[in-house]
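ugh ok fine here u go
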Amino acid sequence: MDATYITETVVPLLLEFFFILIGFQLFYTAYRVLRQKNHPARLGTALFWTLLGILFAGGNILPPVFSGILLMGIGVSTLLKQVKLGHVEVNTEQEQEIHAKRFRNKIFVPAILLALTAVLIAQLTPFGGQVGIGTAAVLSLIVAMVLFGAGPKLMIDESDRMVQQVGTTGILPQLLAALGVLFTTAGVGEVIADLISGFVPKGNPLIGVIAYVLGMVIFTMIMGNAFAAFTVITAGIGIPFVMAQGADPVVAGALAMTAGFCGTLMTPMAANFNALPAALLEMKNPNGVIKAQTPMALLLIVVHIVLMYVWAF
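structure:
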């Protein structure tokens, strides 16, 4: 099959299929919420998952204005605190212990298979990383159902439980990535480039790499997520001060993204990574997770600078 045909025709169809699958799972979650008579915010929560399901399943054919209206509806329902966790069925500690003794390390097989399959598809085929992740997710789900003897009903019920427990934070990476695009379109990257050019000389790859890595770390700490920081910092620092000096954009871009995650480890803005675990673990210090992660994050920042300077040039 021709590579151009795959990237221009097959890949969009596959991605649309994965988005539709996600949309139907969200519709099922909305249905389950509506069935809970004692849910603290039944209508608002069901509306949230329904609107999000429409965006996933039909976003490709919806007019942009209509998609924007749905997104505003999602935002309003969240702002008014109408999206809440209802009753979800979970195994008792005794049941969890029985399953743990029965399956042991087999529980890691689907996760490892997902990662390996996604990497292999992304690296060895023209389908790319997005199709790789979607295909790997479906394949690992099928393997998990066979491995653990789970039927379709249990599969969608457990998926519903995960969706409800993750809640509104599940769409945070997408919103932050979109925010990064908006910042770039608004010219924030150009403003940052102008500021950086005042004290970072062009033509010095090492200083450019340091500015790129630290820029990703600092902006990620401000935004709370590397997705939002990546487009802005890459446009403002990465392209003019690193890639324009001859750096490999693939290597530099990949390392810049993971450098941003070093900032995620050190900021309370990344609530789903740092504040939520502290609350779940009932830690006395709400910043205990950040304090534990900061030394490793600082070390990894240095490692990223060295790797980008050595590998990208």
